[in-house]
Amino acid sequence: MATAARKQDGPPPGGYKPLDFSRVPARSVIGAKSLIAGYLAMSGAAFYLYFQNYKKIHRDDVEVRSSMMAITPLLMAEHDREYLKQLRRNRDEEAKLMANVKGWETGKYKGEPIFKTLPPDTLVKPIPLEYFAHGTMDNYQDWDNILLWQ
Amino acid sequence: MVVSHDITLPTEEELTVQEVNVSSSVLRSAAFHLGKYCEFANDEFMLCRTENNGDPRKCLKEGKEVTRCSLEFFQKMKKVCRQQFESYAECVDKSSCNFQFKPCRKSQGVYDQCMLDNMGLERPHWGYFSKAKIHDTKRPKPPPPEIQVYPDATPALPDDYPRHPNKYGGYYAHQ
Q: Which of A55, A71, A118 best tests the B interface by mutation, with the highest count of B CBs <10 A?
């Protein structure tokens, strides 16, 4: 039985090729100078457009604010009248509620004014819970929630 | 409540006037012409409120004038430009969630032209009501609060009492 001839695996005749250590730079599409110039140009154009848009938005904001300021006196005048009406209603209600309590004076603590050093006839606005004291909790919460939403 | 019977409050009748019963979108759409029409009354009221430190009882007359003027404006406008205004107000109401004027420039132009032709009111500059203004009024300024004088206050030194410079300098560098 003939045995197959064995062959030692070795380098090709003439030896291996020398290793290629030389630098292979990436294919350049755009140079550094034009890259920086392009960046500046694009940023400049973008800033210009941003500024144009900013002016427009600012203009619209100021217009809305102006319209609010124009109707503020009307709203405030109506609010003042309704507020004073409610203060009187509250005071009358307290006087009626505490009519049978001996020594009770409306708006005073044991017959003494709450604010001693203020000049007479100074209106101190009551805190909200006092203002809503004779109403329901729903009334108070309506007001309170609206204030928080603003 | 802190409001006692010593504090004067106006009665219900004094406070009851005909109010302007319109909704937010109407007020917002009419704001520029309304503010221009009632400029004097509005400025007078806001100045009064500021001068009296926000006491609502002192400026009721001015406030009623503001409401009367606004009511007059709406009545006049209703006669001449009702249809144009209603389309504009509807646009402002329904085009955005916060009454922007931006989507409604076309109907605004029609409304402005109508107001200019019939009432002679031009739409003010968009920042007109955001500017600081000088208001000239005949109403006298309320007197400043009185300086309180206490009878048992510590007597002060006379003005010609001899005063010497500090012997060792003062707390601050410049003394």
A: A71
- A107, A91 in Cβ contact below 8 A? yes
Of A60, A67, A94, the CB nearest to B1: A94
Q: What is the ipTM of this complex?
A: 0.85
Whether chain A has a CB inside 8 Å of the CB on B6: the answer is: yes
Residue A38, H or E segment: helix A32-97
Query: What type of residue sits at position B44?
Result: E
Question: Which site among A80, A86, A150 would you substitute to test the B interface, given the most B Cβ atoms closer than 10 Å to its Cβ?
Answer: A80
Q: In chain A, which residues have their Cβ closer than 8 Å to the Cβ of B56?
A: 80-81, 83-84, 123
Subunit contact A67:B42, Cβ cutoff 8 A: no
pLDDT tens digits for range B146-156: 888 888 988 88
Asked if residues A85 and B149 have their Cβ atoms less than 8 Å apart, the reply is no
Of B55, B59, B101, the CB nearest to A63: B101
**Max mean pLDDT range (A101-105, B72-76, B170-174):** B72-76
Closest Cα of chain A to B169: distance in Å? 40
Mean pLDDT of chain A: 91
Domain-by-domain residue ranges, chain A? 39-149
Confirm whether pTM is higher than 0.90.
no
